[in-house]
Design goal:
CATH class of the largest domain in chain A: Alpha Beta
Helix content of chain A: 40-55%
Number of domains of chain A: 3
Oligomer: homodimer
Number of helices of chain A: 12
Shape of chain A: globular
Structural class of chain A: alpha+beta
Distance between the termini of chain A: 19 Å
Radius of gyration of chain A: 21 Å
Chain lengths: 376, 376
Amino acid sequence: MGYQHWSYETLHRLCLDSFTGFGFSGEEAEIITDVLLTSDLYGIESHGIQRLYRYYRAIQKGLIKMDARPEVIFETPVSAVIDGHDGMGQIISYNAMRMAIEKAKKNGIAIVSVRNSNHHGIAGYYARMACREGMIGLSCTNTNPIMVPTYGRTAMLGTNPIAMAMPAEPYDFFFDAATSVVTRGKLEVYNKLDKPLPDGWALNKDGHPSTDAPDILSNISEHKGGGIMPLGGSTETLGSHKGYGYGMICEIFSAILSLGTTSNGTGAGGRGLICHCFAAIDPAAFGDPEAIKAHLSEYMRQLRESPKAEGQDRIYTHGEKEIEAERRMMREGIPVNDNTMVEIKSLCDYLKLDFSRYFGSYTIPEENASFRGNFY
Amino acid sequence: MGYQHWSYETLHRLCLDSFTGFGFSGEEAEIITDVLLTSDLYGIESHGIQRLYRYYRAIQKGLIKMDARPEVIFETPVSAVIDGHDGMGQIISYNAMRMAIEKAKKNGIAIVSVRNSNHHGIAGYYARMACREGMIGLSCTNTNPIMVPTYGRTAMLGTNPIAMAMPAEPYDFFFDAATSVVTRGKLEVYNKLDKPLPDGWALNKDGHPSTDAPDILSNISEHKGGGIMPLGGSTETLGSHKGYGYGMICEIFSAILSLGTTSNGTGAGGRGLICHCFAAIDPAAFGDPEAIKAHLSEYMRQLRESPKAEGQDRIYTHGEKEIEAERRMMREGIPVNDNTMVEIKSLCDYLKLDFSRYFGSYTIPEENASFRGNFY
């Protein structure tokens, strides 16, 4: 599959025009676009512009309700619960994190739990919002079920990412990771390449470890059982119960505190039913924010400069890879695969946007022309 | 190595008498004893009564200062930083979590970060304190360095456990796990049994995966390099960067927010320099605590009752194993190994306590008589 590189500005304009074309306000379109393109810039293609068409389809199907008005159903000076009423995940999440940040500015710490939302892109985006205001940001979200609990054979948890960001120099600390060993996107990459999966990633429908990507992906799609292992694998030897535990922490802060839907119940009745949680912590609640930032920066420097394993030349601290990817892509463009270009073309046709205004003389390669969308 | 089973009451009396013998008040001795024996009752021998003698030695060496007066050096209605001034980790931690609970009762959420403390037993004990008052409890602690960051060969983080507890029926949610793939205690068990380590646990001094327990343990003791892998192993394929990331989250909340010492600097100058963090969250800050508890209980029931992997007959939820172990040991006694009995005997002699008053006619087996302590 080929990739085209497009400038940030080109994709930004396309996304904005598309989301306003769907009916979002300019301000809303700007938020959704920023979440999507941040993911692409960080090198997380699965959550970037390749999802543009899926959001369009979700709106068409009524999964995402354009007229939803998220509602604060419980609130204290340090907490809130929001019912998203099936609105766009990014808008709901952006506003929920803004609320957490405002509360934390006044009171030091705040947690906002959200129910009845939809897929919101990368969890780390919202953690980074707090970080940009000098705070610790935390966010997590449950997802459609795909993680199988230790010794089980049915997906009962989502990939359930937990993200955290905190100011540091020269790179902020930025951690954003599924609590499952990998995400579904990784399985799909191996599937496309026709390669067996690494040991320790997935389970077949009987709950046995398997490296058969097509079998596992079709079982997941058809709800036949199996799925992805928790971080730590399928037995306690390498800590399966730990990844499963972090997945539970995500469910508790998102779906339990909000009285929302746990991962195993999401998607019911044609609704997303996704739950999130956002927290902001002001370092000023613990002393001098500059001293705390300097202390973290120094520790991260020590980590990067500590002795490397034989054959390795670099130890990364969390956030470095994303910043480097962002700089490279702002310089060299963002890669978009040709199948995604097919979807974008079809979207432009529907929205009566002039495809060539964004992409000039680019034409869909013959081999991709028959692609009819990659909906999962 | 043989094990003797002793009643909870016997060990409770011995611990109380020992800690008051060291010079702690009755109330302090009761706290330390409860932390130690809770660990034994939960089946975590490494952090239980077998550490009694090590605490005694740490006090003798001046690592733990009996006259320390922990000091609140920064405070807001939802947060605090405490300097432990090298006191006993359990006392400092108990009081820090009490402070978090009191603040959370008034304000919904509270976080207390602690520096200059010492080993405090199982992190989960403190999370459970909040849980017993109907709250979500979180706690974490850094430790002596033993976790090697992804692609490194020097231990720069500790085992850095993160614990969380939350009320549920019939079992509370209780999660307490090192962010390293295993703890040092597990390596020592394999060493004693003269067995190779499982793949995916440890690194030799060059940073290569190794199953050679004696080599790894001696490298750790002599600071020659190597150590234990993060949860997720030594490469990104199985998520090494994730375990390393959770270890970082532990460092940030304990050592960074308190401006304390990160794991790689602990133990310097004959001081422990251990840092902790404790958080309490009142579910009432998110709505009806009973409804939230019922929602968690129902999800945990669904998890336990979900289909098992072929060949497995049980899916555990976090906390079940500990409660079952506690019930069994209250009934059948707590197992204490004969080497620990040697240490207890020697401690009784020093404190002029009558060993037989606790342990009747038990005598140290011939093969253990030459044991001179297991200090690591």
